[in-house]
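Title: Prediction job returns without error message
Component: structure pipeline
Severity: low
Priority: P3
Assignee: unassigned

Description:
Job completed but the reporter wants confirmation the result is attached to the right record. Sequence as submitted:
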Amino acid sequence: MKLYNTFKSLILEIASVDSIVDAIKKRDKIIIYYDGDEPGGRGLRLIEPVCFGYSKSDNPVVRAWDAQGASHTAYLGEQPLPGWRLFRADKIFSFKPTGETFNEPKPNYNPNGDKSMNRVIINADFSEVTPPTPQPTAPETETEVSVEDVLDDVIITTVNDMINSIIDKEGVDSLEGVDLSKAAESYKRIYSGIEDKIRRNLSNQEKNDLKPKVSELIQQSQSLIKK
């Protein structure tokens, strides 16, 4: 009997009202050994206690988010964890902080108390928790496309379209003597095609700098296509 009383006093010290209240104030995550909720409910659980008071039957109770561990309702196939649970404090046989805290209430948390309690001693206060400062995110930037990246493709496409247009209108023989590198329309189309792909306008200086290379590439492309 003495041993039992000693063990009982140890239990009450570990799961004392003070330790429960302190955990709620600090928003400590707690490992408990719960001796209630049979079948399937006895065992270790990880909880986030948010409210302590007395039930309508005048039993000391703890409202907590039951994250994982033994679960009476899971055993019955109903409301598996995680979820809100009401624990009788006198059936909590160990009460050990994990060293971690919780700073946000879980869904459906009632900041005004607990309807299942006849008297609330303490309810968790999340108002003092400073929300994390949103970290600025770098704006998404599109990879810049250079003129050199698109030049060959634009010229080949443009020359091919212009040759096909000439053939459609005047026939294949009309290609003899045609030099698209000397046609102003070729450069107009090519510069426009480049601007579409690089998503900006070319300056007059850029166009002048590009002209000799564009002329050479037009001639090369035309010779390849005509063959």
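Comment from assignee: result matches the submitted record. DSSP finds six helices and six strands in the chain.
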